[in-house]
Amino acid sequence: MPEGHTVHRIARQLGRDLVGHRLRVTSPQGRFAAGAERLDGRMLVASRAVGKQLFLEFEGELVLRVHLGLYGAWDLHGRVTPLDDGLAPLASLGAPRVRRAVRVGEGESELAEPAGVDETFPPAPVGQVRVRLLSEETAADLRGPTACEVLDPGAAAAAAARLGPDPAAFDDPVALAAAGEQVVDAVTSRSTAVGALLMDQSVVAGIGNVYRAELLFRARLEPHTPGRRVPREVVRGIWEDWTVLLADGIRTGVMLTREDLDDAGRACALVDRDARHWVYRRAGLPCHVCGTAVQVEDMATRKLYWCPVCQV
């Protein structure tokens, strides 16, 4: 499932290329035809993420809420402005021609067009496209989301309020620290295992399976520990760590959680998924720290990876 950093990058990308434009909104698949009709022809005025949820605000006080879930992704075509992260552009900049596209979901990847194809913009929708947002130069196709609905501002605010704090929502250090204390209170007042609490989006927004495993390992915390038995300073440290990891993920588009890497190792890990993590997807392999085989089990409906020696 796309985690918080990916949804923030989607919000920023759509903000760069679609905010301020009056959009043609359609549902090629047909499943969102009524919602698309309500948004069609309106200007997109804001694009923001809260945790794993995207809120696209249109003129006329209408909000498109999207939750990608396990299988959702956005395919972007045409002019796709590079984000300020020092990385290569996500897609070709020379609109309005389509030579390649980009998929933004659990992993960002270029979708190369077949050799010799030089299709005029916009390309015909391919497959089950729930929603297409179309400007003069950019097309954004949403496919496979768990949630896709048009809300009024009050309902959108209520949906966001049900989520726990998201570090990327705070510019003020005082407000960020206060949000962290909210997370500390939520975790330490519950008897639920901390490994499940970190996946509870009402406790803290944006953490998914990868970041859950890695944050717990970095804190050297046993995942089955009841929240009320975790020291407040440990939970506070996890929040502060999440703040740093989320910002790095938003900047690079990569969940890189090993702080032991030098510059060369980090450069390698940015392109090699297997070098990025301490424990995630390393079941049966030796722990990078102690050499014990990394364990895997189900917790909160997802695979939990952890080291039974380092995390005690």
From TrEMBL:
It comes from the Bacteria. SUPFAM superfamilies: Glucocorticoid receptor-like (DNA-binding domain), N-terminal domain of MutM-like DNA repair proteins, S13-like H2TH domain. GO terms for molecular function: class I DNA-(apurinic or apyrimidinic site) endonuclease activity; damaged DNA binding; oxidized pyrimidine nucleobase lesion DNA N-glycosylase activity; zinc ion binding. Pfam families: Fapy_DNA_glyco, H2TH, zf-FPG_IleRS. Residues 278-312 form the FPG-type domain. SMART domains: Fapy_DNA_glyco (SM00898), H2TH (SM01232). Its EC number is 4.2.99.18. Keywords: DNA damage, DNA repair, DNA-binding, Glycosidase, Hydrolase, Lyase, Metal-binding, Multifunctional enzyme, Zinc, Zinc-finger. Its cofactor is Zn(2+). GO terms for biological process: base-excision repair. Residues 2-105 form the Formamidopyrimidine-DNA glycosylase catalytic domain. PANTHER family: ENDONUCLEASE 8 (PTHR42697), ENDONUCLEASE 8 1 (PTHR42697:SF3). Belongs to the FPG family. This is DNA-(apurinic or apyrimidinic site) lyase. It comes from Cellulomonas cellasea DSM 20118.
